[in-house]
Amino acid sequence: MSAARRGLMLVLSSPSGAGKSTMSRRLLAADPAIRVSVSVTTRPPRPGEVDGEHYHFVSQAEFEALIEREHFLEWARVFGNLYGSPRAPVRDAIDAGFDVLFDIDWQGAQQLAQNQFRKEPDADLVSIFLLPPSMQELERRLRARADEPEAVIAARMAKARDEISHFAEYDYVLVNDDADACFRNIQTIVAAERLRRPRQIGLFPLVRALLD
Amino acid sequence: MSAARRGLMLVLSSPSGAGKSTMSRRLLAADPAIRVSVSVTTRPPRPGEVDGEHYHFVSQAEFEALIEREHFLEWARVFGNLYGSPRAPVRDAIDAGFDVLFDIDWQGAQQLAQNQFRKEPDADLVSIFLLPPSMQELERRLRARADEPEAVIAARMAKARDEISHFAEYDYVLVNDDADACFRNIQTIVAAERLRRPRQIGLFPLVRALLD
Prior knowledge:
The first copy, chain A, is of the alpha/beta class and 212 residues long. Chain A has a domain at 9-37 and 98-211: Rossmann fold (3-Layer(aba) Sandwich). The first copy, chain A, has 8 helices and 9 strands. Chain A has helices at residues 20-30, 60-68, 87-95, 106-114, 135-145, 150-164, 179-194, 203-211; strands at 9-13, 34-36, 40-41, 56-57, 72-78, 81-86, 99-103, 125-131, 172-175. In chain A, the strands form 2 sheets. In chain A, strands 2-7-1-8-9 form a 5-stranded parallel beta sheet, with helices on both faces. The first copy, chain A, is globular and about 70 Å long. Chain A starts with 8 loop residues before the first strand and ends with a helix. The A-B interface holds A 1-3, 129, 131-132, 134-135, 161, 164-165, 167-168, 170-175, 177-178, 181-182, 185, 188-189, 191-193, 195-197, 200, 203-204, 206-207, 210-211 and B 1-3, 129, 131-132, 134-135, 161, 164-165, 167-168, 170-175, 177-178, 181-182, 185, 188-189, 191-193, 195-197, 200, 203-204, 206-207, 210-211.
C-alpha cells in the first residue's frame, strides 16, 4: 500500500496531569514503529527511575559540556533543572523509518521546530497538544498523583497555565476528556501523517517505474 | 472531544481509471459531513448524467461569462472541454463546518491552492493523489470501462502520464492497489485533518474559559 518512508518527530505536549505520559506509554506499547527520545536531565532520579531508560541522569557540568558540543536537538530549564533531547539517536531512528516520540514542553517544541533535520517546513515534525477538560480536573489529577506540599501544587498549576497558553503553536490540539477517544485520535493523526507525500521516500522510484 | 470546526477543501486527484470516482462515491456515502463540489462544464451530458447533480451543463458562452464574473475557484480545459468549480457553495459549506470534496485534476488543484479562502498556507486545502499500481492495470481498467476507440484509449493514457507526473504537488499520495485499504487511508487522512488546530475554531473560546 505504501512505499518506504522516512520517520517523523512526534511531539506530545500537555500540562502535567493532562495525560501526556499515559498517552506516550500507550502509544509506545501499541506501535513498534515508534521509539521514544530519552532525555538527558540534571534532575535527580526519582524512586524507580532507571538511568538510560527514563532519563540519562547527568550533573550540571556534564549537561553544560553537552550543550557546548551541540549534543542536543533542544534543551530547556524547567523548575531549575535542565532537560535536553540528544540529537544523534533521533536522526538515526528517523533515517531508519522509525518515528520518534518527544514528551517535552512548549520550549522544547519551539526549539525542535527550528532544529528539524530537513529544510522543508514541518517536514520532520508533527506536534500534538493535549488540553485538560477543566482546570479543576487538572488540579484533582495533580493532587491524586502524589502527596505534595501546597506550594508545589500551586507551582505546577502556574506552569500548567503557562503551558496551555502555547496551545496555538501546535499542529493538532486534542481535549483529553475521554482517554480512549483521545488515544484513538493520536493514533489516527500518526497514521495519516505517515501517508504524507514528503515522508514516503519510496514514491519517486515507484513513479519513475510507472512512467518508464 | 473536539470543538466547533471550520470545514476543509478535500482534493482527490488521480489519472482516469485509478479509482478517484469510486473513492469519491464511497466517501460521500460514508460521511455526512462531506459535500461534493458540483462542477460546471461545457462537455455534453453523457447518458444518465443529471444536470445540477453530476455537473452543471452550460454552453461555451455561458462558461466564459462565468469566468468574467469570477464565479470559479478554479477552472481548466481538459480534452477541449471547460470545467470549473463554483466559489459560493464551497465557501458557504466550509463556513458551516462541512468539508467539500473536489474530484479535479492537477490544474484545478494548483488553482485551488492559490485561491484558498484563508491566508494561512494550506489552511483550507487537503490534497490526495491516487496512483495506480501499474500502467498495465490502469490501461486494463480503462478498456474494461467502455468500448472506446484506440485513439481515445491512447489519449487517456497520455493524460494519465501527465497527471501522474504531478504527484509531488499533493499533500498525500496513496497507491490504490487495494480499494478497501485505500478507502480506509482516505478516511484516516480526513479524520486527522479535521483535528488540525487551525480548523478547530472552537478552541480559542475553550482555552479562554480554561484560563479564566
